[in-house]
Amino acid sequence: MFSKMDNTPSGGRKMEQKSIIIIGAGIAGLSAGCYSQMNGYHTQIFEMQDEPGGLCTAWKRKDYTFDGCLHSVGGINPNYKLYHYWNDLRKNNKQEYNQEKDRISKEVIEILDQRLGNIKNNIDVIDVATPATFKRYTNNWKGKHP
């Protein structure tokens, strides 16, 4: 964190707005910039890539496209049937809710293993996205939707 100082004519020093330089425009860097500005700091964000987003952008490696973006998650929009499915399941049968999340993660890993070859032992599932997941991580049940 850097703060700028100006010399005043009286010889004293006057503090100006504090300034923060952020390296990296991934989710963490962008979040740091937003929260810093909300708390009165001037921010500058520097990014090495052509676009912001970090690991929440898509990239290609050989013949494969890796898309870490959340834009395609339909279960977080209340207008989608999946939203109500996940909320009802979680409210009415927590055990089945967790089993369904586990089943989905195993299915996805199996598909990745078939397509990319022998990688399932190298994958750790952290969580499966549901409306509750977005509320827990973002404190916003809507996730990305307004």
Quick take:
With 146 residues, the protein is of the alpha+beta class. It has helices at 27-38, 81-92, 94-116, 131-138, and strands spanning 2-7, 13-23, 42-46, 58-61, 64-67.
Describe, in plain words, how this protein is organized in 3D.
- Helices cover 38% and strands 21% of the residues.
- It folds into two domains: 1-69, no CATH class; 72-146, no CATH class.
- Strand 1 and strand 2 (13-23) form a beta hairpin.
- Strands 1-2-3 form a three-stranded mixed β-sheet, with helices on one face. A two-stranded antiparallel sheet has the order 4-5.
- The chain contains four helices and five strands.
- With 146 residues, the chain is an alpha+beta fold.
Distance between the termini: 32 Å
Taken together, the total number of domains comes to 2
Biggest beta-sheet profile: 3 strands, mixed
Tally of DSSP helical segments: 4
Q: Looking at the structure, what is the overall shape?
A: flat
Biggest sheet: strand arrangement: 1-2-3
Order of helices and strands: EEHEEEHHH
The average pLDDT is 76
Beta content: 15-25%
Radius of gyration: 22 Å
Q: What structural category characterises the helix and strand content? A: alpha+beta
Low-confidence stretches: 1-10
Query: How many strands?
Result: 5
Helix percent reads: 25-40%
Pfam families: NAD_binding_8 (PF13450)
Keywords: Coiled coil
InterPro entries: CrtISO-like (IPR045892), FAD/NAD-bd_sf (IPR036188)
Organism: marine sediment metagenome
